[in-house]
Input
Amino acid sequence: MTKARGANVQRNQRLVMDLPEAAGDSLGLVLGPSHPVLRGSARIVLEVEGEAIRAVDVQVGLLHRGFEKEAESSPYDQTLLLAERLNYVSPLLSAAGYALAVERLLGIEENIPMRARRLRVVVCELSRIADHLTCVGATALSLGASNAFFLLMDARARLWRLLESLAGPRLGSPYIRLGGVNSDLPDDWVAGFRAFSPGLRQTVWRVDQLLGENPMFRERTRGVAILAKQDVQGWGITGPVARASGVLCDVRKDNPYFGYEDFEFDVPLGDVGDNWDRYCLRMEELRQSLRIAEQAIGRLATGPVIVDDPRIVPPAVELRQTQVWAQASLFLLATAGPIIHPGEVYSAVESANGELGFYLASDGSARPKKCRVRSPSFANAAALGPLLTGHFVADVIPTYCLFNIVGGECDR
Amino acid sequence: MELEVHTTRLDALVSWARQHSLDQYPFLSACCGVEFMATVGHGSSRFGFALPKAAPRQSDLLVVVGTITERQAPALRRVYEQMGDPKWVIAFGACACSGGLYQNYAVLPGADQVIPVDVYVPGCPPRPEQFLAALKQLRLQIENQARGRPPAVPSLSANTQTLVRIRPSKSTKPNKAGAKGGGK
Amino acid sequence: MKAALDWAELEGVLRSSADVLEGQGQISGLQWAHVHRKSWLTSSTYLANDGWSQFVDLSATDHFVEGESAKAAGRFVVQLIVGKGAARVALRVSLRLAELTLPSVAALWAGAAWFERELFDMYGVRFSSHPDLRRILLYPEFVGHPLRKDYEKARRQPLLRVGPLSQLKDGPK
Output
């Protein structure tokens, strides 16, 4: 495991302010929901005394769109659309997580063709890269480093152009389907990817120079919002925030899926668990994700890209034209949706923010009895309030950005 | 020294100025926000579309981007009321137009339930180019307003003039079946 | 080798408080144990002490079916998922509408606090000794609990509603 950059360097710790008990002149301050950085997904109510925060109430739920209620009355394949819109910064990853849960419920995880699994790994890792680029970009912008922001957004735009040529629309892509992926690679896609990846590495290196070597950025992030290692698990924090505090947890290593066990990659770990570690860790994860994507491209198996299971995939056109059962399956799929035998599953993937879990319970009909999303952003956001108490008002936004609380995922 | 003189009507001049200097306030909320941010790369600033400010008092154009939940509706209304006249609203995305994919207890079925909308941009999410088309449509509307013609799309402002904020109920009577426990 | 729940030990813990394990099983992804409401805290404490320190999820399922009694026993099943390394274990408990309360486990896993608030918001489950039990995803003016099966999906409760014209005099609020 590689350690995050700067882990061994002596830090000058910013002390959390030890506030006196007296009430004094405290002021109530409300950040959001309409805020350039919070982007409508949270309202943070602060009680401040001067610049120091005495109390925080992080109010989430402003983007609660009733995912679980909608899922209970939607066919399993339509819920895929809603699942995509959970973490809308890396939609293909959320969709892949949901598709995996349904496949595990059906018991056909092993039947998914290898080529489909590799392609899913490629899009998942590229989505994770897009998410981290956005997260670090937003942090840079909030701290005033707009140059780094534009570099990262440019890289993200190029990445999305690449993904668009494969997956279609950026959001609302039909690429991830129950049972596999929608279509195979276009002919020139691999060449495009190989042309893109050195550029991304270069951008990451440049941004690391701009931010990582910048004394102002280091001052603003080192020693800020330290999340202690022993607190991480009790809060249910997973993903980059947990790893930045030194807790090793990664669903890709612990409970591999999509064939992640075939790839070599490191899981970086942080040291202190401050904003600096969270930043370094995301940059390192960018490099590791690119490494995984390159390996996956190099090891694409041949074969179909979607499983041959009439319960979730319409049979081929030739079959439908000659066999009645095939036409009937298509009819059922189009009208009722996939019908899944009674059962339950808890399936987790490593999303950009941590363990994205789906608990699905089916009762033998075309609608799930329960579709629960275990949201990593929601669990991470719970710790934000206690973490920020005692810090400065100016630390709120960078910490919020580095926690990457995505409204759609947090509030469902 | 030679002078170049142009004559025009005042309202045409004002409308020309307004069309080409729209200061936007993006009320970002959900997935469409990511698509909206991508419009930066499509050269919207050449249309006078300045860098987005997060200040309602300084903006003319409120762009409602993404799903508006019932919980956010008062905030959206407040932002709209804080903007000075003249102001216009673009509803970007299916959710802002009509609630989109989400027809349930939590989501406002369209931003026009609480604010008058001038241009609707459907799509889930719309392409960034659609936003530029919406800007063009809005400029046509501003032009029409200046010339005293009805706007291209009638705005639904008639029924949004009085909005009452619902207060928590203080009733101690038991609620209807299935709603035991109340909201507090 | 993934960690596993020690069933014998859990049964022993329950027996000491005059209770039994009501059910157990394995589904894809986790082992589950079903306990009675009165053993919720003892079983959770056992899990927390046994090293299941990773809090994962707290959710509920409403098994109400149209035509059956809304007050049936075992209508709501609350599920707590905790982890140890790569393993996941679920603790389940059945509740009925008349007794929709549970002791809070926020003292054992700090992350449970927000998830319990969400259960209160969506299902109406009340958690005793919870530090801050109020709605989290919906607004305080909302009446009812939407994830219950007898709450209509599209029953809206708008916060801003078109009021009578007489409101115009006072101006917007």
Summary: The CA atoms of residues 166 and 172 of chain C lie 12 Å apart. The helical segments of chain C are 7-16, 40-49, 112-123. The beta strands of chain C are 23-27, 30-35, 54-62, 76-84, 87-95, 101-103, 126-128, 160-162.
